[in-house]
Amino acid sequence: MLEGITRFDMNEPPRRQKLRPLIWALCFPDVWAHKNKLTKINMEGVKPPYLLLCNHNAFMDFKVAVKACFPNRANYVVAIDGFIGREGLLRTVGGICKRKFTNDITLIRQLKKVIDNGDIATVYPEARYSLCGTTAVLPESLEKLAKLLKVPVVTLICHGHHVNSPFWNVGDRKVKPTEAEMTCVATAEELQELSHEEVMERIEKAFQYDDFKWQKDRGILVKYRKRAEGLHKVLYQCPNCETEYKMSSSGTTLKCDFCGKHWEMNEDGTLSGSDGVTEFSHIPDWYEWERANVRHEVECGEYSVSLNSVVNALPNAKKFINIGNAKFTHNEKGFTLEGNANGEFYSLNIPVPDAYSVHIEYEYLGKYGDCVDLNTLKDTLYVHPLESDYSVTKIALATEELYNKYWREKKAEKEPE
Ligand SMILES: [Zn+2]
After folding, report:
1. What does the pLDDT look like over 14-69, one tens digit per residue?
2. Domain ranges in the chain?
3. Residue 246 Cα, ligand 1 centroid: separation in angstroms?
4. Which CATH fold topology does 305-414 show?
5. What is the distance between the alpha carbons of residues 223 and 121, in angstroms, rounded to a whole number?
6. Ligand 1 mean position to 282 CA, how many Å?
7. Ligand 1: distance of its center to the CA of 238 in Å?
8. Cα(402) to centroid(ligand 1), Å
9. Which long-range contacts (CB under 8 A, 24 or more apart) does 315-318 make?
């Protein structure tokens, strides 16, 4: 597949950040417009180099990170699709390219180089935008990275960026004031003494966030008249009749086209059922209910998805290349993609234990529709299903639940009761 096409150079060492005044000029006005309140905790005496772990809800996260790091230099791990058509610029401002959800040694070496330069190594460990403003799964390799780099571990958790610009319908809903906490969770000395589990616990504790709860607690209202549009991408299953893939949304309303029930999305981010019965007023609770249903399917061995799809490849940062149609399958064997590219059959498999999560997109770039992003160390493939009854959200949830089941069973094999 894709023979003769130049692959992205993943080995290029990170460049020390240039154009800092320009970066500040581009980022600060937005941070000010949202009246961002930044609180620093345990940060006295913490100076670069350090490892900065940030949560990921919207592009604003990057702008707040610039404020939090001011005036120091930083490098940022960015996924390859962020590099399309602007590789030179991204490298100049400190971008390091990675294909999502792949384990690569090169990245660790590059982050080490950033630390050796005396700069801040910024990582978005959730590796994708949060789907409904709550914590996404963190890779277990994070504490190994922290111990290896031997520098303070700092977290930056932003609040309000999901409700301002939700992943399922981006924009600017003028949410203010937004907040952020920058916390040193472990100094270099503490890292030496703490166990791997203790380091991971501290990171996970800092990473607890819930944007819709934050909104409600702060009494922040979103008056935007299309605030529910796109929400059905996340909430794909009706809690009234349990039908999947028949949800739709428009204006401030979410609707099940199968049973006809609808829900109003209120200005404070809560939901109300039109018939007086509100199954879930808190959006993340609905999402977790869907996850529980997917988990049940996975546990029973009933989960399996097979979809005819069109595949766009991203071998380098120039542009997507359509490599034709393929059969996309997702089940206990992991992801399988079988198709013909340039008249030649190919088959790609990513087994369950190799994918703790997966990156998905809704209405990608406004023209390709929803997709699942499959990555190997060499390739990035955007798989766009051509059928109507599917949900990429469900596929993402199933990826995590399949992974959890796999490792739970592996562990049980090792430690018989
Ligand atoms: Zn329904």
Report:
1. 888 888 888 898 889 999 999 999 999 999 999 999 999 999 998 899 999 999 99
2. 20-218, 231-266+270-299, 305-414
3. 8
4. PH-domain like (2.30.29)
5. 37
6. 18
7. 5
8. 27
9. 315/2, 315/5, 315/6, 315/7, 315/8, 315/378, 315/379, 315/380, 316/5, 316/6, 316/7, 316/8, 317/8, 317/80, 317/83, 317/84, 317/85, 317/86, 317/87, 317/97, 318/84, 318/85
